[in-house]
């Protein structure tokens, strides 16, 4: 289908107009033009009938029918132009020719078709005008000389074809430009909507990740300390009357561990508060930054980047971690291979949390079992393994009845995988349990 005028030829009218018109006012305009053209051609048909020796009513009806073809200009512009060319020898259809050429040039038909029909109309008008003027000169109606014949022919042909053709080409190009701009605007709107949906999805994903991270940090901080506190409380209950001095030591350990848990919780909450404050400061600084310029924005970002951030646990605290489990009655064997060195903070914190959670699981599920903690410093990675033997059948710590949420191993695997490492856990052939992790050093 090709678009002629304001709508595609053959398409149903999108605006509710009759037949092939998209709007009712378009139908009224074409009807008015067709009526004016029919009246013109009917009036000119009188002279045609007299010159051709035909009855006058025949010439009038022929002219009216030819002029009314203009009603189809939006539907079949080629037919309108061909009819206008066909009736040129009868000295009728000037309005039909002008409007038909305009509609043809404004349509989306191929340029070669428009050029061919416009050329035919120009040549036809030129020939017919040449014949008319020559006849008038021969009859003596014009006495200006022979030069008037080509001049009048060329001027009339250009005047009847060029303005309507150029105006139609301009209107068609402008219409196509507006349609292209509307399509681009619609496409841009769809892209913006898609980007907004993706941004909302990314924001939701980021919120879920942040909630998971906070839950994991809370689990790592609270579970280990509180598990040790419960173990010591159970031991304190068991030896309170038999060994008062040991009960005092256990009570002191419970207090120390409670204070350490509170300290870690305060540090983590401080990091969360500083992150919220930085986000609020960034939002509040949008207007001031527009006034003070980019340099001030860079300086503000640099100052925020240089603010001290609370550090998490590191591998240098591993001895203390193992000592706390030993103080709770666990038999722990710590071995370190390779040359100790500093790693990125997130690497050291992840390695520490893996060992911490593994020891916590031993307290929960294998109280009293001997445990081996191995740490290996390699060229491009750090490896750790926590393995416990089968728990004894009867253990004094079993009365602690530590609850388990089932999220410890999941959290360890998430931490290690986030750094590109490998995490493996499972029971051993001897009946114990083993947790292994390898984390890239970089």
Could you give the topology of this structure?
Blueprint: E1 3-4, E2 7-8, H1 24-52, H2 56-68, H3 77-86, H4 94-106, H5 111-139, H6 148-239, H7 244-284, H8 286-292, H9 294-305, H10 318-327, E3 332-337, H11 345-365, E4 371-377, E5 381-388, H12 408-418, E6 422-427, E7 433-440
Parallel strand pairs: 3-4
Antiparallel strand pairs: 1-2, 4-5, 5-7, 6-7
Helix pairs in contact: 1-2, 3-4, 3-5, 4-5, 4-6, 5-6, 6-7, 6-11, 10-11, 11-12
List keywords for this structure.
442 residues; alpha+beta; Heat Shock Protein 90; two-stranded antiparallel sheet; 7 strands; histidine kinase
Please summarize what this structure is.
The chain is α+β, with helices and mostly antiparallel strands and 442 residues long. It is 65% helix and 9% strand. The strands form 2 sheets. The chain has a 5-stranded mixed sheet with strand order 3-4-5-7-6, covered by helices on one side. The protein has a two-stranded antiparallel ribbon with strand order 1-2.
């Amino acid at each position: 289908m090709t678009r002629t005028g304001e709508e595609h030829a053959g398409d149903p009218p999108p605006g509710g107009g009759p037949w092939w018109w998209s709007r009712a006012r378009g139908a009224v305009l074409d009807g008015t033009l067709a009526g004016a053209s029919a009246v013109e051609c009917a009036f000119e048909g009188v002279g045609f009938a007299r010159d051709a020796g035909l009855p006058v009513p025949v010439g009038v009806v022929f002219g009216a029918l030819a002029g009314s073809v203009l009603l189809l200009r939006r539907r079949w512009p080629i037919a309108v132009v061909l009819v206008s060319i066909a009736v040129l020898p009868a000295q009728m259809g000037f309005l039909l020719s002008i409007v038909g050429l305009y509609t043809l040039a404004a349509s989306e038909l191929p340029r070669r078709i428009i050029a061919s029909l416009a050329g035919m109309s120009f040549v036809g008008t030129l020939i017919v005008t040449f014949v008319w003027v020559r006849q008038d000169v021969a009859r003596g109606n014009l006495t200006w000389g022979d030069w008037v014949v080509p001049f009048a022919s060329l001027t009339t042909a250009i005047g009847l074809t060029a303005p309507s053709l150029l105006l139609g080409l301009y209107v068609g190009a402008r219409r196509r430009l507006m349609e292209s701009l509307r399509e681009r605007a619609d496409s841009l709107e769809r892209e913006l909507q898609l980007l907004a949906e993706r941004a909302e999805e990314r924001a939701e994903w980021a919120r879920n990740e942040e909630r998971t991270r906070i839950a994991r940090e809370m689990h790592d901080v609270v579970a280990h300390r509180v598990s040790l506190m419960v173990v010591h409380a159970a031991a304190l209950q068991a030896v309170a009357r038999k060994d008062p001095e040991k009960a005092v030591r256990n009570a002191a350990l419970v207090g120390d561990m409670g204070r350490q848990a509170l300290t870690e919780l305060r540090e983590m909450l401080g990091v969360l508060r500083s992150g919220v404050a930085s986000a609020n400061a960034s939002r509040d600084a949008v207007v001031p930054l527009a006034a003070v310029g980019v340099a001030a924005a860079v300086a503000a970002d640099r100052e925020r980047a240089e603010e001290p951030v609370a550090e998490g646990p590191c591998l240098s605290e591993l001895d203390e971690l193992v000592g706390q489990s030993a103080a709770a009655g666990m038999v722990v064997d710590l071995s370190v291979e390779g040359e100790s060195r500093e790693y990125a903070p997130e690497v050291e914190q992840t390695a520490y949390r893996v060992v911490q959670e593994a020891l916590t699981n031993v307290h929960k599920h294998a109280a009293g079992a001997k445990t081996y903690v191995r740490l290996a410093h390699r060229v491009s990675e750090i490896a750790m393994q926590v393995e416990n033997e089968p728990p004894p059948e009867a253990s004094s710590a079993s009365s602690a009845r530590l609850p388990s949420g089932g999220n410890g191993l999941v959290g360890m695997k998430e931490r290690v995988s986030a750094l590109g490492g490998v995490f493996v856990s499972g029971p051993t052939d001897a009946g114990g349990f083993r947790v292994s992790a390898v984390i890239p050093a970089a």
